[in-house]
Write a sequence for this structure.
C-alpha cells in the first residue's frame, strides 16, 4: 500500500495542475479578479463579504496610456456627447435591437447622488482632417467606455443585517471593430483601479450580464421575457375599492413609506438616492405607479417601468418592467389579491405605454414580477427569453432567489 502512495500523490498533483491550467485558460481575466468563482469552495461555506480590503495594484491589465477615468461632474459636454454617440453605435446593437439614447436619457442616471460617479474612455490617437482649416490634426478616437454610479446595498438574510455602498457598472462597451482584442478587461481593471484610488470609501461593484457568467457565482440569476403587444387589448378597470396613482416629485414620499413597510419581503435590496430616482421620474426615464385602497389611501402594490431607448423590430420602443412589489399580506397565498396585483400591473403598463408610445413589453423575472409573467404567459407566448444575472465584484456572498431581490436604480 505504501508503495502506491507516491503514485497516488503524483496523479492527484497532475489532476490539480490540469484543472488549474484549464480554469486559468478558460476564464482568463476573471480568474485573477476578486470575485466569487464557482471553484472557490471555501466561500460557499463562509463567504467573506469584501474579498480584497486593500487598494487595487497595477497589473498587466491596467492601461493608463489609453484609458482615462473622469469624475462624472467634471466631464465636458463635448465628451459626454462623444460618449452618447459612441454607445449609440456600439452598445446593445444587433439585427433586432437598436439602442438610441440621447443625453437626456443618460445624464439623469448620474444626477442626484451623494457620492461621485465615473466615466472611463479607452482612446487611440488618429489623424483627422480639420475641414475649416484644411489641415491634418491629431484626435482621440473612442474605442471603449464604461461608467459607474453609486448604489446602496442592504442584505436582510439570516441573523445579521448588512448595509454598504457599491458602484453599479453600466455601458461597458467596445467598438465593434476592436472586439476580441482584450480591451474590455483593460477597461474594467483600470476603471476599478482609478475609481478605488479616487474614492476609497467604496470598494465593491455590481455588474449586470445577459450572457455567460464566466465562472462567477451570481448574486441572482433569472430570465428576462419579451412580449409582443400587438394582440393586447386595453385591460378592464380595477374594482371600485382600488385606484392607481402615478408617482411624481410631490407624492414620492408615499412610495418611500411603502417600500420601507415591505422591505422584509426581500432578502437583498439595491437602490440609489431618492433624489436620483426623483430625477429619473421627472425626466421620464422611469415611471412608477402604486395601487392604493380608495378609502384609506393605503398603498398595496408598486410597479416600476424603464424607458429602455431600445427599439425592437418595426421601430417599436421597449418599455421594461424592472421591478414590482406585491404588498398584500401573505399575497402568495391569496389568489384574489394576486389577481388585483396583476390587474394593477396591466392597467399601469397600458397607461404608461399608451401615453409615451411604447410598443413592446419586457419584464425581468425579479422581485414579484414572477406572478405577472406567469399570468401573461397563459395567453401570450414570449417572443424572447434571455438569461440575466447580477454579480458582485470584490464581494462574495451566497446567491439569492430571484423573487427575493429588489433592484431600483
Amino acid at each position: 500500500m505504501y508503495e502506491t502512495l507516491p503514485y497516488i500523490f503524483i496523479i492527484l498533483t497532475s489532476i490539480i495542475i490540469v484543472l488549474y491550467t484549464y480554469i486559468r485558460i478558460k476564464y482568463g481575466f476573471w480568474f485573477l479578479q476578486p470575485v466569487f468563482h464557482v471553484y472557490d469552495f471555501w466561500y460557499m461555506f463562509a463567504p467573506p463579504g469584501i474579498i480584497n480590503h486593500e487598494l487595487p495594484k497595477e497589473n498587466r491589465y491596467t492601461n493608463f496610456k489609453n484609458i482615462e477615468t473622469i469624475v462624472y461632474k467634471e466631464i465636458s459636454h463635448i465628451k459626454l456627447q462623444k460618449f452618447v454617440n459612441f454607445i449609440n453605435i456600439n452598445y446593445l446593437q444587433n439585427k433586432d435591437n437598436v439602442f438610441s439614447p440621447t443625453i437626456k436619457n443618460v445624464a439623469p442616471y448620474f444626477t442626484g447622488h451623494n457620492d461621485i460617479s465615473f466615466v472611463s474612455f479607452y482612446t487611440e490617437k488618429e489623424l483627422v482632417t480639420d475641414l475649416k482649416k484644411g489641415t491634418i490634426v491629431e484626435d482621440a478616437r473612442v474605442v471603449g467606455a464604461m461608467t459607474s454610479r453609486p448604489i446602496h446595498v442592504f442584505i436582510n438574510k439570516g441573523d445579521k443585517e448588512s448595509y454598504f455602498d457599491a458602484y453599479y457598472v453600466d455601458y461597458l462597451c467596445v467598438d465593434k471593430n476592436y472586439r476580441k482584442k482584450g480591451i474590455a478587461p483593460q477597461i474594467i481593471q483600470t476603471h476599478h483601479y482609478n475609481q478605488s484610488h479616487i474614492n476609497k470609501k467604496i470598494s465593491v461593484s455590481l455588474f449586470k450580464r445577459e450572457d455567460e457568467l464566466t465562472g462567477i457565482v451570481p448574486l441572482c440569476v433569472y430570465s428576462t421575457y419579451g412580449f409582443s403587444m400587438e394582440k393586447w387589448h386595453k385591460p378592464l378597470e380595477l374594482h371600485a375599492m382600488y385606484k392607481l396613482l402615478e408617482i411624481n416629485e410631490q407624492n414620492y414620499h408615499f412610495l418611500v413609506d411603502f417600500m420601507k413597510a415591505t422591505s422584509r419581503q426581500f432578502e437583498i435590496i439595491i437602490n440609489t438616492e431618492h433624489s436620483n430616482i426623483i430625477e429619473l421620474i421627472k425626466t421620464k426615464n422611469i415611471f412608477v405607479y402604486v395601487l392604493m385602497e380608495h378609502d384609506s389611501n393605503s398603498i398595496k402594490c408598486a410597479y416600476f417601468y424603464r424607458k429602455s431607448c431600445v427599439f425592437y423590430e418595426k421601430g417599436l420602443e421597449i418599455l421594461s418592467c424592472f421591478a414590482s412589489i406585491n404588498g398584500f399580506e401573505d399575497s402568495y397565498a391569496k389568489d384574489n389579491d394576486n389577481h388585483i396585483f396583476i390587474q394593477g400591473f396591466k392597467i399601469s403598463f397600458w397607461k404608461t405605454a399608451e401615453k409615451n408610445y411604447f410598443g413592446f413589453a419586457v419584464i425581468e423575472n425579479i422581485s414579484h414580477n414572477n406572478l405577472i409573467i406567469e399570468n401573461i404567459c397563459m395567453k401570450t407566448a414570449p417572443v424572447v427569453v434571455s438569461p440575466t444575472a447580477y454579480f458582485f465584484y470584490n464581494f462574495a456572498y451566497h446567491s439569492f432567489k430571484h423573487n427575493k431581490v429588489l433592484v431600483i436604480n
Summary: The chain is about 25% helix and 35% strand. The chain has a mean pLDDT of 90. The longest strand covers residues 135-155. The first helix runs from residue 5 to 27.
